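hiii, so i know i said id send this last week but things got crazy w the move. better late than never?? heres the sequnce for the chain we talked about at the cafe, plus the structure i predicted for it. fair warning i was half asleep when i ran it
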Amino acid sequence: MKKQLYLLILLASLFSACDPAPATFNLETKNFGPNAVITIRSAENGETLKVENITNTNQTFKINIPVKGYATLRTEDGTHKGEYYFYLDKGSYKGILDGKNINSYPLKSVPTKEGEQFIDFYKLKDDMSKNLLDSLDIVELELDQATPSNIMERAKNADRWREKKILLQLNIIKAFAKKYPGSAHTLFLLEQLGNTDSEAKNYLSIFNSLDKEIQESKKGKNLLKEIKQASQMMAGSKMPNIEGENPDGKKFDLSILKKVNLVICWTSYNGKSRKNNQLLVKLYEKYKNKDVEFIGVSFDKKRDWWVNVIKDDHLTWPQYSDLQGAKSPNAKNLSNYNVTYGSSKKVGD
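okay and structure toks below
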């Protein structure tokens, strides 16, 4: 009997040793409506890990088998939503969720150094962004209340402030990277911002400020590859070589370039490409004698389809294709595998 008892105790201890400690959330929740919810998801694969109704009390809940990695804590209260990044691991998380102040980072105490760095990131964000966010709220409200006579002016003003917001977000990440050059969080934050195509130079500047170990990590190498790809497609950048031939069998020749060149990547079977062709024909007639050249690069595989559309849509600017479809080097070098894509290039840059 004693042997069986010892065996049960041993098995129980083994199971408890194998069972990871949970991530426990102790949150003070207040000022939310009756149907508000908290959702915790993995930021890496989108898996929903926990959904809880907000009770406007001291709430405690657990994620029993947490997987280390980036996660989001999201609140939804009607149309009001808040979303915050954090680093998920086992241990205790404490904080305050306030429905009247959703811009405030809710987590005040976390179990790991990785998590503490996120608290610092959001402190930087609060310090650097308050005035701009207040101004953006004002112009967004003005846009909502616009009349037909002033809607264009207010829309342009809102766009300017949105651009300022993107630059501010990059500056916040830059400040964080300077404080934590050895943190992989910077790679994650840049990835989540998702403006590599339009802000390649700023991305590269931030990337170069990181420790070599972070740069040479798998995520670091992937981001650098993305930055370099985006740099190739920016207006004014040096244009990669165009592979393939024109319908007459001639290879791409730099002599066709003018002061400004618009590279248009397309396919004959893409509806958006065909619709764009109608607009491009008119634009080409307007600009072709003003030191501007259009250059079509097709990702087609079937020569007949490609040539027939050139004829049917009256595309009179230079056209090239290697007829390799998505496997074409042009797809990678000129449009990052996107159709339809246009980019302007200057001669000599």
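btw The radius of gyration is 27 Å. thought thatd interest u
miss u guys!!
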